[in-house]
Amino acid sequence: MLPMDGVLIIDKPAGVTSHDVVARVRKIIGERSVGHTGTLDPFATGVLVLLIGRATRIAQFLSGAKKEYEGLIRLGYSTATGDVTGARVEPPSQAKLQSSQSLCREGIESAMAGLRGELEQLPPMYSAKKIAGRKLYEHARRGEDIARRPARVTIHKFDLLTPQESFSANDDGSFDIPVRVVCSAGTYIRTLAEDLGKKLGPGAHLIELRRTRAGQFPIQSALTLEQLLEACEQKTIGDALISSHQALSHLPAMALDKDNLQRTLHGLDLQADHLGHLSDAAHVRLSMNEELIAVGRFDATRGLIHPMVVLRTD
Question: Is 314 a catalytic residue?
Fold first, then answer.
């Protein structure tokens, strides 16, 4: 199989890690150089952006993209992990869900409104964030509670995904509400669910989560692993592969001529006075014939672009 370069959008199934998906894709397409731009929890599904071949070098320009999710939050009790995989944590005996009126749409939306905008989130102990060289969930499994710094995130949208005016209780007295979240990269939806539970009563946790968009890539563009295997067998994988040039279409572009191509390949600065409308340190696609040659950084003071990540080496 010929080497591949570009971006693949995979619809991650539940029950496997993002690393498991990467390993499976490597085997299916016969390419060892495969990475992703943002982890999904094992129980979660949906958009996983994979970078193939030389496209792995553009990860830094995609990993900060806005994300969209659809999820199901269970109100009534929390869990040790903040999601459906953790053991139930019983609330204090005096804690109970607020009056049934607060679980009507108006009460829930009022609580959700207080969780929009810029927030500080404490990374959950059961997460893949690394501290002192070890993932937090590894510390948690050893019974260690590690000091963590809160991170600033932005919740652009946090809305109910139902026309219901009220919600019926489950057999155990909990309530399930479907939600949609649009947020900045690095947001923990589990933590958002827990914070909602604190506002409404004795706790909450996330029981379902599906990423429906990462940056410009919607779930409609995603392939299941089975579809990817079929595309490889039928040799139509090229139809699903997104070029690096297209994947970075959110960045301004500069077309290279032959002279600037050689300068770019040698990492030399390019004159770019015509891009003076860009902000200082803006990233710019350096392309020829819609092939991404490099990504540069614009120096507004000097009117130059410095190639910072070069994809082509010839």
Answer: no
